[in-house]
Amino acid sequence: KKKLKISGRELVSVPTQVFSLDQLQVLEMSPERESCLRYRMDLLPKEISHLKNLTCLYLDSNNLKKIPAEIGTLSHLERLTLSSNSLSSLPPEMGALQRLHSLHLANNSFTELPAPLCQLRSLTFLDVSDNRIGTIPSSIQHLEKLETLLLLFNSLESLPEDICLLRSLHTLWLGNNHLRSLPASFGELVNLDWGYSYCSCNFEGNPLEKPPPEVCSRGPKEIRDYFLSLRR
Fold first, then answer.
1. Which of 59, 42, 61 lies closest to 5, judged by CA?
2. The Cα angle at residue 189 between residues 212 and 225, in degrees rounded to 5
3. Do residues 134 and 157 touch, judged by C-beta distance below 8 A?
């Protein structure tokens, strides 16, 4: 792969020459990945659209407050990391990234799950931990290939019933939210692994009542039986 990692103590902007490298496939501009990189971007240049062959774009730990619409033209993009920025929204054009399978948005300023995310039908990994997300839209059901969904440390008080349609989910982290109940069909997420060595669904830090924590800890079948018993 044709790869470029931007680094250096004296960097004060992104060199414009970067955007003429139209065969570039991997671009790293993350200070946390390069300890000597002091420069933190406030704006991702619109010229990013020139890099038509990008498959991986790493932009963690910058000062980005928004993403330009031009990102939607990167049709080959498979992995995008935007964690630890100051983002509160994503452009609608981002929904066009139909090859994107891994998206990292932890530690930003989202108060809701951005609508364009639910159009990314190839997503298998989504991390939106450490935000202020209060609601999940029912359109999350369109992410049929999603295997890992990380929602820790948000402000969720409930989950939509539609999240139970994500039958490919293996890992769902829900710790440290404000959940008092789970959707009645939650037990249908049978691929969630409640093994002793690794709990793939984490509920710690939630005031759960329906089902109570001791039921949740026993796995999908117990959760399903709990809700069935309520109907009798």
1. 59
2. 45
3. yes
Long-range contacts: 40-45, Cβ < 8 Å, 24+?
41/14, 43/68, 44/68, 44/71, 45/14, 45/16, 45/19
Counting as low any pLDDT under 50, the low residues of the chain are 35-36, 197
Q: Determine the structural domain holding residue 169 and report its residue range.
A: 3-231
Domain count, the chain: 1
On whether the CB atoms of residues 111 and 89 are closer than 8 A, the answer is no
pTM of the full structure:
0.92
Rounded to whole angstroms, what are the CA distances from 36 to 28, 53, 90?
14, 27, 29
Q: 102: helix, coil or strand? A: strand
Residue 63, domain CATH:
3.80.10.10
Alpha carbons 86 and 154: distance in angstroms, whole number: 15
According to the model, what pLDDT value does residue 218 have?
A: 84
